[in-house]
Specification:
SH3 type barrels; six-stranded antiparallel beta sheet; 17% helix; 6 strands
Amino acid sequence: MHPLADLQPDTPARLHSLDGDRSFQRRLMELGFLPGTAVRMIRRVPLGGLIELEVRCCRVTLRLSEARQVQVTTP
């Protein structure tokens, strides 16, 4: 188990848990970030510290500071 921010592009993973305050967790759950859900890192945006992810056939962008609060497991 490691932070989502540590994934390399095109690496599949499964969400394990969400850390952080309840409002942050709720926001991510509304976007489909639920434990056991498949997630794939699409790319890192060089400026701004952002990462683009694919979750439930949708693309979502998170800040690296937010991605460090999401724990994933890789196959």
